[in-house]
Every structure is written in C-alpha cells, then in structure tokens.
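Notebook entry, structure prediction.
Reason for the run: the old model in the group folder had no record of what sequence produced it. Starting over properly, with the input documented here first.
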Amino acid sequence: MPRPGSHKYDIRRSRLRNRLDDHGFPDERADQLANEILRNPRGAKARLLQVARKFVPRPGQRGA
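New structure, fully documented this time:
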C-alpha cells in the first residue's frame, strides 16, 4: 500500500475519486470516500456496503 502523499497514492486516489464521481457522488463526498478507502483498505468493503445501502435503491424500490 502506498503511503499518503506519495505519487502512487495520489494516482490511486484520483482514479478512485473519479470512479466515485462518475457514479453520482458529489465532488466533496467522493474525495472523502476515496481517502477513507485508501487509508483503511480492510474496512473499505464494509464502508462501501454502507454507502451502497444509502445511495443505491434495492431491487423493486424506486430511488429517493
């Protein structure tokens, strides 16, 4: 895992942030999530599940 502030970390962060932004997250929220995911890769899956539950409607339900 690259260290925060390194060139590799910045590249990974910007790519992840752009993917989140492309999926409809606001700029600031995408930035926060990208940092959080890269700093805590083990907790990233659980965190993404929480985010998905909040923003992605379940099958058979309409979006809020």
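Summary: The first helix runs from residue 7 to 22.
The old model has been moved to the deprecated folder.
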